[in-house]
Amino acid sequence: MNKYAAAARAHWERTAPSRLNALENPEEFFTNLGLEVQAQVSDLTAMLAGTRSSEQNYLQEVARLVTARRIAEEVVMAQLVWIGDPELPLEQAREEWEQTRPSDENLVIWAERMQDSPDLMPSTVELEQMASDWAVPVAFLEGLVATEPPRDYLRENQAVLQEAATIRFLRELS
Q1: N or C: which end of the chain has fewer CB within 10 A?
Q2: Predicted model pTM
């Protein structure tokens, strides 16, 4: 049983003992759940981390990979493990969140400002924080700034934006 399976089982013991007791083979269930979580975390980490920039030093590379891994774990565990009792059904909560979340247009405005004044480009640490806040890879933000007009880059990368929105939504749920 991997660390994800152990965390899931401990969580279920605290929050849903009746569901745990109803499982026919809890050991097999949690082992399989742990393997599924591990696979999804690996896939999402790779997507979020993107590719290594030649401008990154070793510590920046480690920070990028660790950040991607932590975000991936947070998202996958929220989806597959943490049992909650939300006040709103998930679909309604998502609709409400969509109405109040920051618009992707803010990224276009930011990128246009960076294009107009390259000296305002944030430091690597600030860029990594922005990428983490928006749940997109740093390379996504760099590509956004490099493309004229930035809105075209957003249109071409709608899948990344949709996944990022889901990640940010799930962060707020937990």
Answers
A1: C
A2: 0.51
